[in-house]
Fold:
Amino acid sequence: MKLKSVLCAATAVGLLAAANAQADTITIATVNNGDMIRMQGLTDDFTTKTGHKVEWVTLEENVLRQRVTTDITTKGGAFDIMTIGMYETPIWGKNGWLVPLNGLSEEYDVGDILPAMANGLSYDGTLYAAPFYGESSMIMYRTDLMKKAGMEMPDAPTWEFIRAAAKAMTDRDAEINGICLRGKAGWGEGGAFITAMSNSFGAQWFDMEWNATFDQEPWKKTLTFYKGMMDESGPPGYATNGFNENLSLFQQGKCGMWIDATVAASFVTNPKDSTVADKVGFALAPDTGLGKRSNWLWAWALAIPAGTQKTDAAKQFIEWATSKSYIELVAAKEGWANVPPGARTSLYENPNYKDIPFAKMTLDSILSADPNNSTVNESPYVGIQFAAIPEFAGIATEVSQEFSAAYAGQQSIDEALAKAQAITNDAMEAAGYR
Structure:
């Protein structure tokens, strides 16, 4: 009864007043991640409270980014809410392409959003997107396979340890791959992973004069190490695997380790979906001793494109979907382990959540990620797994395609890096950076 009262009180002022207003149907573009799918299943709660209906356009990550970018740059008007992240939000907010999220209700409590998330989703001090969930990346590993290999996972391992452990856990006859990592082309898929990894090897996208650095040794070390480890211990076809493919492999018991988004922790430990739910441990993303770990910082967030005729209804949905009361709703239906993580300070102060096995490691990973100081040597850009400049998405998509081709053995690492250098420098020169 107490939980029901909290739910009602937290939503009443911000949402019920809209029930008597004109009902709208809003169209939302979102990514096909588990938390977003769960949100769609709970949308009736929003409709009951407000009268507004929701139509969903659910897309694979790379396709979502392409669709929403095309729509907002051409003023297509296909969506009333877009699921975007820390890369797009400040750039689009600066351009005036998004509706500022001002005037959110007192009950919503904007100040409760984790500073790392609020800062990454703002431009010039104004919030332009609200985090549905926040994430860093970390190691998820099979405790039983690690024990069988005679090894013990440190809280903060090195890449050399991870490679040795992956090799020791690999059992090709049993279809167990020691490690599963993203290799899929796309700046936010395999591109994000290898960029975050490269930071720990001392690499960066640009020097202080905006010259590409793929012709330097740290990038060669990164790709050589990655491909060597994945050829030894990764799954067949890893060059085309992204988040969802590796999640499926891990849940089927086919991965000894997986380094990816912290949000995946609830999926791999959910006995409804994961065959290894009771055998999963967590550790910080690896380093090489140079002072930078290979974890990223990201939020999947909801934003309103400027020009929509349904701003009020869209704001009401964003309040509903990213609120404390939504977290309580998910907890009531699915359990605390399955609530959207990484967005609100209060979640990590909640006694119901503190003992969730991955909660502390998730928060530690988020807090250790510094987008303003992500590389070993000084760099001119903000961002960890991306450089926060408008040109980056196009450049990095092409570069990631060259890297994936190298992983698949279609070209050498040297060839991929030479092409990446040329692609990047040509684009930066055309954009006037050099």
User: Anything to note?
Assistant: The chain has two domains: 2-135+298-356, 137-295+377-430. The first helix runs from residue 2 to 15. The CA atoms of residues 36 and 180 lie 23 Å apart. The two ends are 63 Å apart (CA to CA).
